[in-house]
C-alpha cells in the first residue's frame, strides 16, 4: 500500500529543514509533493529553493529519493525511503514561456497549477475576476501534457479550471481542494468542478486546512468526511488526499523579496485574516485516516484507493506520457 500526500509546503528557503518530511514518513506516507514556489515567488527564489531541496535530498540518499515514476515510488517504499517530487503553484515562474515547463520537469517538478488565487497572463485565480483560460494558457496546458506533468487546478478560478479540464489531453487533478458544498469558501471547488475533474479521469485530493475544511482544529474525521463527499458524488476512484500542511521554521525567513503584499494574495474580502492564520492537521493524522475513512462507510480496499492508489493510477498515466526529446543546437 502506498500513502500519497499530493501537496505539502516547507519554508520557501534553500536551507529548509526536512524534519517535517521525516514526520510524514514516520506517519506512513510513502510519497509527498513538495511545493517549490508560487506566483508571488520570483524565479530567482524558486530556483534557489529547488537547488536547496535537491541538495538536501541528495545528501541523505538512505532517507529520501527524488523520483520521476510510479515504479520509483514503489521501489522507494520497499527500500524504506521517502519518495519526493516538486510542484509549482502558479504560472508566473514559467515567465510566459511554455518551454520553461520542460526545464522544471527536468529539475523534479511533476505537478503544476497555473494561478495562485489571483489572475495572471495564463489563467485565473479563484479570488479574482473570471476570464477563462487565455490563449497562452492553452499553449501552457499543451506543454504540461507533453512533458508528463500532472495538470493541477487548485487555487484556480472556476471557469478557468473548467477550460483547463476541457483542454487537457491527460487526467487533471486538484491536489489540495475541498468541496464547496460542505464549506462555502472561494478556494473550495463546486460539484461541477468535481464532476469535470472526474470526467478527465482525475482525482480531487482534499486538504486539511482549517479555512477550507470547516474546523478550527482539523482531524482525520474532518478529512475523511470531505473525501467521502467526493467519493459519493463521482465515485471513490476520484478521491484522494493532499493535506496542504504548511510547515514553518523559526528563524528562517522565506518572505518573497520585493514588494510583497499578503493581503493581495489572501484578500480579506475572501475570508482571510492576517491576524488569524489557518491551522493544519498534524502529520500524524495519516495514521488515523484508514480508520476514519472506514467510519464514513468505506471498505479497506476503497480506503486504499483514496489514500494513494487513485493518485498512483493518474501519475502512471501522466508521468509515463511520451515526452519530447531535447534537440541539439
UniProtKB/TrEMBL annotation:
One Gene Ontology biological process: proteolysis
Q: Name one Pfam family in it.
A: Peptidase_M19
UniProt cross-references to PROSITE patterns, sorted A to Z: RENAL_DIPEPTIDASE_2 (PS51365)
Q: Which InterPro entries match?
A: Metal_Hydrolase (IPR032466), Pept_M19 (IPR008257)
Q: Which GO terms describe its molecular function?
A: metallodipeptidase activity
Name of the protein described by the UniProt record: Membrane dipeptidase
Amino acid at each position: 500500500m502506498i500513502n500519497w500526500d499530493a501537496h505539502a509546503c516547507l519554508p520557501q528557503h534553500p536551507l529548509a529543514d526536512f524534519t517535517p518530511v521525516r514526520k510524514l514518513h514516520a506517519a506512513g506516507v510513502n510519497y509527498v509533493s513538495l511545493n517549490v514556489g508560487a506566483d508571488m515567488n520570483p524565479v530567482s527564489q524558486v530556483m534557489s529553493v529547488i537547488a536547496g531541496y535537491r541538495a538536501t535530498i541528495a545528501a541523505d540518499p538512505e532517507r529520501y529519493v527524488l523520483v520521476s515514476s510510479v515504479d520509483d515510488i514503489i521501489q522507494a517504499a520497499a527500500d524504506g525511503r521517502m519518495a519526493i517530487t516538486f510542484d509549482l503553484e502558479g504560472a508566473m515562474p514559467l515567465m510566459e514561456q511554455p518551454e520553461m515547463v520542460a526545464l522544471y520537469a527536468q529539475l523534479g517538478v511533476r505537478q503544476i497549477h497555473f494561478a495562485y488565487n489571483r489572475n495572471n497572463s495564463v489563467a485565473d485565480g479563484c479570488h479574482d475576476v473570471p476570464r477563462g483560460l487565455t490563449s497562452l494558457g492553452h499553449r501552457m496546458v499543451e506543454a504540461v501534457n507533453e512533458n508528463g506533468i500532472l495538470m493541477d487546478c487548485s487555487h484556480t478560478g472556476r471557469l478557468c479550471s473548467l477550460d483547463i479540464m476541457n483542454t487537457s489531453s491527460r487526467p487533471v487533478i486538484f491536489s489540495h481542494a475541498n468541496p464547496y458544498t460542505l464549506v462555502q469558501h472561494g478556494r473550495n471547488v463546486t460539484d461541477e468542478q468535481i464532476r469535470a475533474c472526474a470526467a478527465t479521469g482525475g482525482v480531487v485530493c482534499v486538504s486539511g486546512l482549517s479555512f477550507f475544511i470547516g474546523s478550527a482544529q482539523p482531524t482525520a474525521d474532518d478529512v475523511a468526511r470531505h473525501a467521502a463527499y467526493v467519493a459519493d458524488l463521482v465515485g471513490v476512484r476520484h478521491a484522494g488526499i493532499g493535506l496542504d500542511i504548511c510547515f514553518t521554521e523559526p528563524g528562517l525567513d522565506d518572505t518573497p523579496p520585493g514588494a510583497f503584499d499578503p493581503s493581495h494574495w489572501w484578500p480579506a474580502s475572501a475570508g482571510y485574516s492576517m491576524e488569524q492564520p489557518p491551522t493544519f492537521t498534524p502529520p500524524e493524522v495519516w495514521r488515523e485516516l484508514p480508520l476514519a475513512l472506514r467510519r464514513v462507510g468505506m471498505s479497506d480496499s476503497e480506503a486504499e484507493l483514496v489514500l494513494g492508489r487513485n493518485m498512483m493510477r493518474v501519475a502512471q498515466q501522466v508521468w509515463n506520457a511520451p515526452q519530447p526529446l531535447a534537440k541539439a543546437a
